[in-house]
Amino acid sequence: MPEKSNIVLIGPMGAGKSTVGRHLASHLHLPFVDSDREIERRMGVDIPTIFEYEGEDGFRQREAAVIADLCSREGIVLATGGGVVMRPENRECLKRCGLVVYLRTSVSVQLRRTARDRNRPLLQTENPRARLEELLRIRDPLYREIAHLVVDTDREHLRGTVRTVARRF
Ligand code: S3P
């Protein structure tokens, strides 16, 4: 059981974590926090710049520090980055942070939602579909490992997803 009363949204890039999170927060009258935006705010630069200068490892270290800080709060809706589950310490932290909701999404839908996005360094590749498939193969079991609730965002529309999560909170 979680120790804190937050809602934590996990899932791959393009799952709709920020969109669902913003709507959920306004529905429940709670603050919304996006860990990627919080990392950028603290660093004063965007995520591609952090990847460029510090590599993915540097980004993951900063991400772990921000996740630990945000999970000390109560009553927030937290959207996380798609790779947050790669570190065991993040998985432990998030499980205790609140109701963990995995927004499950197919690769085709992820591709559609991220098509024109230049802010995701891991998708700056010749074959984003192959990259997303590989990431999902590795991460799907990790998302499931810590999720208290799985919502299929390919099937559920935004309002349905918000209602399903709000009912469980
Ligand atoms: C990443 C996902 C991004 C961001 C970074 C790395 C990943 O967040 O944290 O580009 O490893 O999947 P979103 O899932 O919000 O796009």
TrEMBL record:
GO terms for molecular function: ATP binding; magnesium ion binding; shikimate kinase activity. Binds 1 Mg(2+) ion per subunit. It catalyses: shikimate + ATP = 3-phosphoshikimate + ADP + H(+). This is Shikimate kinase. Mg(2+) binds at residue 18. Its EC number is 2.7.1.71. Pathway: Metabolic intermediate biosynthesis; chorismate biosynthesis; chorismate from D-erythrose 4-phosphate and phosphoenolpyruvate: step 5/7. Monomer. It comes from the Bacteria. It comes from Ectothiorhodospira haloalkaliphila. InterPro entries: P-loop_NTPase, Shikimate/glucono_kinase, Shikimate_kinase/TSH1, Shikimate_kinase_CS. Catalyzes the specific phosphorylation of the 3-hydroxyl group of shikimic acid using ATP as a cosubstrate. ATP binds at residues 14-19, 120. Its main location: cytoplasm. It holds the Pfam family SKI. Keywords: Amino-acid biosynthesis, Aromatic amino acid biosynthesis, ATP-binding, Cytoplasm, Kinase, Magnesium, Metal-binding, Nucleotide-binding, Transferase. Its cofactor is Mg(2+). It is an enzyme of class 2 (transferase). Substrate binds at residues 36, 60, 82, 139.
